[in-house]
Design goal:
The protein has 433 residues and is an alpha/beta fold. The chain has helices at residues 2-12, 17-21, 42-51, 53-62, 79-87, 115-126, 145-159, 170-182, 186-194, 211-226, 247-253, 266-279, 286-295, 300-317, 323-329, 331-337, 343-355, 359-363, 369-385, 390-396, 403-418, 420-432, and strands at residues 26-31, 34-39, 68-73, 135-139, 165-169, 198-202, 230-235, 257-261. α19 (369-385) crosses α21 (403-418) and α21 packs across α22. The two termini are 45 Å apart. The protein binds adenosine-5'-diphosphate and magnesium ion. Adenosine-5'-diphosphate (ADP) binds at residues 107-109, 114, 139, 141-147, 272, 275, 300-301, 304. Keywords: ATP-binding, Cytoplasm, DNA replication, DNA-binding, Lipid-binding, Nucleotide-binding. Pfam families: Bac_DnaA (PF00308), Bac_DnaA_C (PF08299), DnaA_N (PF11638). Belongs to the DnaA family. Residues 343-412 form the Chromosomal replication initiator DnaA C-terminal domain.
Length: 433
């Protein structure tokens, strides 16, 4: 049964789930629909939990194997890791709030890409209902929206005794609402979410096309807002760009402050990795941190996952944490990650190299004609080769205004047709990319 599950898992679970993580587990027992797996150490346990435990349970259920999977850290787990895990001090959880005590402002690293979102979150946490209401945070996957929302909640609970805080994902909000209708408990549902001081509702774009839940949320919103209770909302897009959400909700999302989180630059990625290693109480060599930060550019969750992986492999294989080993252990991760949107950095590097100028010239405000041309080409290629928004590209070049990007794209498009020199340069860079 276990082998079958592994086999199916290879196809249906996220990449690497079966081959990297599950392979290290041993099935211990299967009773009453509960599958107990022995995992070698706490890192694997965390990885499986964070990456795909729910999906694994779904798969096991689908195959009629089990409905619940329990991970137990093996008796043979190296002592040192267990100690390490224990040493990591955990703040007290707040039952019922839906808050994860691990996500605090303390552990959130501030960089250019998230400075405003962080500042706004802190302001809201300091004076809920007063500073910005609602606070709307948007940005790509794995960039820290959920972390910030939990930080707000945890902060409020620490500071204000008796405050009522509720964190809820939009999916959970939808499910609870539907259940409450089925069970004739809509009154309780309304009561629950309209009686809080701070409502943190994550990934609001999932409300798309859910008309009745939107209606319910509309009233929840009004009721809280009227009572000057704080609402914090996150989404993968700015309010106006979320499709299939009622206009009256969209306009309310814009009542307070709308702020975004962008992918972190190299420096911030390094700082985040250092912070994570410190939290885990693990000594990771500087050059390994740098290597990871350079190679996993687009998503902090992946960045963190890669750090966990190398720590884990180093422990498991009893091999030192060196750049060579990290490269070996992360071969697949890195290959996939570099295809991602963050190749803007690579485009910048290659363009700068081709022009024989430093990368910093591209992100500077220098306007000499060669540098301006190089910059425009790099912007144009970023638009062609990545899925980044104009805004994000502008941001990667230190431009507040994305009209510069639009202008650059148009100009190079035209020039590419007419100007042989420019065409040659662009083609040369494309080749290298
Ligand atoms: P999102 O909700 O935007 O998809 P998350 O908040 O879940 O992203 O963040 C993904 C992971 O990255 C989390 O483990 C989080 O702790 C971490 N993370 C994101 N941004 C930061 C940051 N600025 N400092 C420290 N950790 C971060
Ligand atoms: Mg999230």
């Amino acid at each position: 049964t276990w082998n079958k599950l592994l086999e199916e898992g290879r196809e249906k679970l996220p990449k690497g789930a079966a081959d990297i993580w599950l392979k290290t587990c041993l099935p211990i027992s299967l009773e009453g629909g509960v599958l107990v797996l022995d995992v070698p150490n706490v890192f694997v346990k965390e990885q499986i939990q964070n990456r795909f435990l729910e999906k694994l349970e779904d798969l096991a259920a689908e195959m009629n194997v089990a409905t619940k999977v329990i991970l137990q850290v093996g008796k043979g787990a190296p002592k040192e890791e267990v100690k390490r895990a224990e040493k990591v001090s955990r703040p007290t959880p707040h039952p019922g709030s839906g808050l994860n005590p691990d996500y605090q402002f303390d552990s959130f690293v501030i960089g250019k890409s998230n400075r405003l979102a962080h500042a706004a979150s802190l302001a809201v946490a300091e004076s809920p209902g007063v500073a910005y209401n609602p606070l709307f945070i948007w940005g790509g996957v794995g960039l820290g929206k959920t972390h910030l929302m939990h930080s707000i909640g945890n902060y409020v609970l620490k500071k204000m005794e008796g405050a009522r805080v509720a964190y809820v994902s939009s999916e959970k909000f939808i499910n609870e609402f539907i259940l409450s209708i089925q069970n004739n408990k809509t009154h309780e549902f309304k009561q629950k979410y309209r009686s809080v001081d701070v409502l943190l509702i994550d990934d609001i774009h999932f409300l798309a096309n859910k008309e009745s839940t939107q209606e319910e949320f509309f009233h929840t919103f009004n009721s809280l807002h009227d009572a000057k209770k704080q609402i914090v909302i996150s989404s993968d897009k700015p309010p106006k760009e979320i499709h299939h959400i009622e206009e009256r909700l969209v306009s309310r999302f814009e009542w307070g402050l709308v702020t975004d989180i962008q992918p972190p630059d190299l420096e911030t990625r390094i700082a985040i990795l250092k912070k994570k290693a410190e939290i885990k109480n693990y000594n990771v060599p500087e050059e390994v941190i740098f290597f990871l930060a350079q190679n996993i550019p687009s998503n902090i969750r992946e960045l963190e996952g890669s750090l966990n992986s190398v720590m884990f492999f180093s422990d498991l294989n009893n091999e030192p944490l060196t750049v060579e080993n990290a490269a070996k252990w992360l071969k697949d991760v890195i290959r996939n990650s570099n295809k991602g949107p963050a190749s803007i950095e690579v485009i910048q590097q290659v363009t700068a190299e081709t022009f024989g100028i430093p990368v910093s010239a591209l992100t500077s405000s220098k306007r000499t004609s060669e540098i301006a041309l190089a910059r425009q080409i790099a912007m144009y290629l970023s638009r062609e080769y990545t899925e980044s928004s104009l805004q994000h590209i502008g941001y990667a070049f230190n431009r507040k205004d994305h009209t510069t990007v639009i202008h650059a794209v148009k100009k190079i498009e035209e020039a590419y047709k007419k100007d042989t020199r420019i065409r040659q340069i662009v083609d040369k860079i494309k080749e290298k990319l």
